[in-house]
Amino acid sequence: MTDTHKLTHVDETGAARMVDVSAKTPTVRRAVAAGRLATTADVVALLRDGELPKGDALATARIAGIMGAKRTPDLIPLCHPIAVTGVTVDLEVTDTGVEITATTKTTDRTGVEMEALTAVAVAGLTLVDMVKAVDPAASVEAVRVLHKEGGKTGEWVRP
Amino acid sequence: MTDTHKLTHVDETGAARMVDVSAKTPTVRRAVAAGRLATTADVVALLRDGELPKGDALATARIAGIMGAKRTPDLIPLCHPIAVTGVTVDLEVTDTGVEITATTKTTDRTGVEMEALTAVAVAGLTLVDMVKAVDPAASVEAVRVLHKEGGKTGEWVRP
Amino acid sequence: MTDTHKLTHVDETGAARMVDVSAKTPTVRRAVAAGRLATTADVVALLRDGELPKGDALATARIAGIMGAKRTPDLIPLCHPIAVTGVTVDLEVTDTGVEITATTKTTDRTGVEMEALTAVAVAGLTLVDMVKAVDPAASVEAVRVLHKEGGKTGEWVRP
Amino acid sequence: MTDTHKLTHVDETGAARMVDVSAKTPTVRRAVAAGRLATTADVVALLRDGELPKGDALATARIAGIMGAKRTPDLIPLCHPIAVTGVTVDLEVTDTGVEITATTKTTDRTGVEMEALTAVAVAGLTLVDMVKAVDPAASVEAVRVLHKEGGKTGEWVRP
Amino acid sequence: MTDTHKLTHVDETGAARMVDVSAKTPTVRRAVAAGRLATTADVVALLRDGELPKGDALATARIAGIMGAKRTPDLIPLCHPIAVTGVTVDLEVTDTGVEITATTKTTDRTGVEMEALTAVAVAGLTLVDMVKAVDPAASVEAVRVLHKEGGKTGEWVRP
Amino acid sequence: MTDTHKLTHVDETGAARMVDVSAKTPTVRRAVAAGRLATTADVVALLRDGELPKGDALATARIAGIMGAKRTPDLIPLCHPIAVTGVTVDLEVTDTGVEITATTKTTDRTGVEMEALTAVAVAGLTLVDMVKAVDPAASVEAVRVLHKEGGKTGEWVRP
Questions:
Q1: Which among C55, E124, F16, F92 could bridge A55 via Cys, Cβ 3.0 to 4.6 Å?
Q2: What is annotated as the active site (chains A, B, C, D, E, F) (predicted)?
Q3: Cα–Cα distance, B60 to B39 (Å, whole number)
């Protein structure tokens, strides 16, 4: 295992720390993360139901995800507070649940993938909250980064 | 579809609302939720590595999960602020990642499963943050309620 | 000026304090507050526009108002943290803007009107944020309590 | 209605989003917003009362307004977190209430008027909280931008 | 060392947890904590200076302390969120600095001394912030509980 | 007393304000602050106890300190929100307690010593919370800046 295979957030004695990024150059960075609400056909019918008022159910999750992205440094202990410059949360109702995709951008010294992952997780939890009276077994699945670009490490695409 | 098959968090016109629970009786309630960090054997070795200082990596996730439980009403738009009376977050390193289990308790008017789910999700995201330099593909899987008890609906065990 | 004509949140020396309510009995309390986004006919047309996708504009304000109610003790220095047990935010698009009405409930030792007022103000500011590119002069007007009930002082209706 | 007459915070399908400002240049920006606490002569007398200790009543509102400006991205869902570089909140007791003026500055990619408006609203709500035992009908009126400058759109003065 | 000599916030394996207090009875509890800003004669003169406008310097610290008490569960990882029912922060300018005393009350399942200590610490840090341009060596000293009462353990007075 | 001997956070009328730093140049800045948990030999033995699981006790304080640094602008009313680019919190168990040292870095327009002091204070309070069942008289002592550098005023070392 090489030197690059280290947990960067703990020092050589194992103590947690917020890594010093002062010397890094601010650059435009972008991350895309995704996840999925897994639920029943009943819930899918309720969410899909062509009637317009249902809009709030998805809107609530979308807004929770966007706001969640902004709370990332409050939630993830060793994350740097960064200047999030854009967030979108896309929700697509499928036959087995809701596909959640979040895209985040920044012009800062460190990557924005934790913000995208947090947006996905919070949107997913908000969907669970809204459907749990109908489906108490609803779950949030596969919260993961799909793509990131910008910064020293450059582009990464999920294999 | 029966009356019980409704999304309780939107009213008949589809507008989001925080459901009125004033008339409910405070009772002891408990919820258990779980999830999993899926990662590589390399990361598992780093987390497992018998050397004690590594403790902080898991401790950071445990504490983030506990603190995350307390932030639930700030994150999930329609959740009631409740008096969380106990939280534990258990982490077990396995061959393919980390199993995350959170138990939350309250003595309030509404259930505490969103707090347990939020603890799991935040602990999972914190683990991703700590290992992402080694495994950028690490993901949080299967965030779900295992068990809940207390309140009018009584006990529910994941089928 | 009688004894009841005092600013309760400052003591006899003028120092700010959070008033001690330990001895008060928890009771069901309810408050209704209102306010108005004043904007142009152009914006009204955009908000009203029958096309369904526009739903998010109002949904965003509704959710911001509900979440804002929960943040009241973080924002208003001398407010007690209370167990908000229900919040609704109603938005009605009129010819001159949007009428905002918030209803909050609690079962606690002190009133819930500041939570209702905060919900109205935050919903109003969110609407301003969404329309300001079209109408930079949009304003939030007449944020006020309409009605409150519960607690020792009983019912109050705006004259 | 031209293309510039769009609600920028919802996309073409109506979904809420945080607009991407990564490509904008950081510049010094300044905004001034105002509002008014409308209350009774009794309250005005209490606030004006030459006796010095009363200072805390106005100081509490001033500080709440300044702190509120910093909470703007937590409250307004689609607001970007920006680096607020200065805030003042001025309060002037008049015969019919308190005139509230907030000035905010930033050196960032987007305007600072929502921060100024939030400072005014929170200061106003704090004043309501402090006087509501004497005047339960106190209201916050006319929360609006007076002036903004900096950025691509340049100066705007309330007509 | 007896069983009562344990760190209650870590379990038998050493893992941090929020202790379960569900079974405890809510009772009125009160705590008094104190601390001291240690600074120079120059700063004392500025704070004391009979001229009234200086009021804001102390008012800012008083309000920060009160608001800080409410943020305790957000700051101290294993603290329970409790219903704070009253907070006062007293500041007394002495020849060598400012004596800070905070009194907190609750009617809940667990003690309120962490809230009193947090109020003192935040008030002290706020004073440091205000005087640091004049005295960069200003410090916060002796943040400690003086007295607590209520709950199963009853009264405790600092020896 | 010269002009430089002013409380910068209040204006000439004594009103609190967030000082305008828009015109300052972002530079790398660094601060080191320290403090001490004073406690009994019993507690020291519990914290020191070679057995590894105890790790969480110190890890909890370390993480609370790091997260506390990020909450500084939420706690200290007149502090600017700044881009914290690195935080470490070091804890050293001594015969009479725990020495706490925090180092913070930023690349912004204003200093980072309040963030370092807040990290120390929050880590100290967290330690008090963890040991208070064993030592209710535990205190946080001597929270002070040791060193700062960067910015117009350059280096300052505690005399």
A1: C55
A2: 129
A3: 17
